[in-house]
Design brief:
Strand order of the largest sheet: 1-2-3-4-5-6
Distance between the termini: 30 Å
Strand content: 15-25%
Oligomer: single chain
Shape: elongated
Structural class: alpha+beta
Helix content: 55-70%
């Protein structure tokens, strides 16, 4: 019993035709995307002396994976549409149907190619984009440090300590303020025991240490009763220190800078720390890594359907619908991200709904076509 059908000359012909047109479409999409602003800014910085020639070339190369993440599905849709539209205009599809090939058999080579591109799209999002984005950031001098606040809570979710970091770079922190809470609570506000201000701090493997510290001791009436100088002190230890450093490090990162493994661990940590909005948003982006590559398969089928046209039908109609579908798909993604972040819909729903909606639209379109 044969599991896979025999590969015929027809399969090779269609596969090669769609592959070539898809490659050209991806190339054109990449050139159009990179040319207007990105290339101009890189040239300006090179002429101004901010970039050397080597750095400028590397910056452009590191931008390519981000573009390819969108270019793969767009290129496959346009490549499939162009190929099948040409086959329709040349009456080749009519011949294929006349010899007994069904629509499902005709697009079989396209589906094989779409699964290959789906895999490439997944690998690009998981490996290439995080690697290239981090390399590009390193070329530009690293992250711009921003303020970060970490709140430590007890088992009853009562705040015990708040750490306010004005600036940080890698494992070094600057102008750190520590609010040490007491167990007393007045009108839903926890009383402070001490306020510490340190000029610098350092993250180690199992703790956070502060240096050159000024301690302000506070009475139960909220009045400074003593000011002391401390050479150093440990403020976080063990798992709390590791979690705080991870959260601080990722606070300046976008999801595309994190690979799937680290993003999954970050999502778990956000849930554990009770950072609900960030947790829902990142969970949505993590799930998108798995659902959205399969849009390539859906768009390949849609391209084939749009290409199945009568000899005298205008080619512009199919391409207009294809561009409209791509535009609609990508413009709605931020909307669903917001719905997930605000808790309006579960992240699983917001992640799967766009590709699921396109799949349903493709099925309806298939049913409406006379194939």
């Amino acid at each position: 019993m044969k599991v896979f059908p025999k590969i015929t000359i027809y399969d090779k012909y269609i596969f090669n035709q769609v592959l070539i047109t898809t490659f050209v479409a991806i190339l054109l999409f990449t050139v159009v995307w990179i040319a207007p602003e990105m290339l101009l800014n890189t040239i300006k910085k090179t002429l101004a002396g901010d970039y050397g020639v080597k750095t400028a070339i590397l910056v452009l190369l590191y931008e390519l994976p981000k573009i390819l993440g969108k270019a793969f599905p767009v290129g496959l849709l346009l490549g499939t549409l162009f190929t099948f539209d040409k086959l329709s205009k040349d009456s080749e599809l009519t011949i294929f149907r006349a010899v007994g090939l069904s629509f499902q058999r005709i697009i079989a080579p396209v589906l094989v190619l779409s699964f290959i591109i789906t895999w490439l799209c997944y690998i690009t999002g998981d490996k290439l984009i995080p690697y290239s984005v981090n390399k590009a950031i390193a070329l530009r001098g690293g992250y711009i440090s921003t303020q970060y606040i970490y709140t430590q809570k007890d088992e009853n979710e009562v705040p015990t300590k708040a750490v306010v970091i004005s600036k940080f770079s890698k494992d070094t922190m600057y102008n750190v303020i520590v609010l040490d809470f007491s167990q007393k609570q007045y009108n839903d506000v926890h009383q402070l025991n001490n306020i510490y201000h340190a000029k610098t701090g350092k993250n180690f493997s199992d703790n956070w240490k502060l240096y050159d510290i000024t301690q302000y001791k506070i009475s139960t009436d909220g009045i400074f009763i003593d000011i002391n100088k401390l050479p150093e002190m440990t403020i976080l230890e063990g798992e709390a220190a590791k979690n705080a450093f991870t959260l601080m490090t990722y606070s300046v990162k976008k999801e595309r800078e994190i690979n799937n493994k680290n993003l999954r661990n970050y999502v778990k940590l956000l849930k554990k720390e009770g950072l609900d909005e960030e947790y829902r948003y990142m969970l949505n982006k993590y799930l998108q890594r798995f659902f959205h590559p399969f849009v390539c398969v859906i768009l390949a089928i849609m391209g084939a359907l749009l290409g199945f046209s009568k000899p005298r039908e205008q080619r512009l109609i199919g391409f207009t619908i294809a561009i409209g579908c791509i535009f609609l798909y990508y413009i709605t993604l931020p909307f669903f991200d917001l719905l997930a972040e605000k808790g309006v819909l579960h992240p699983f729903i917001t992640a799967i709904f766009p590709p699921f909606a396109f799949m349903c639209a493709t099925i309806i379109f298939y049913k409406s076509k006379d194939l």
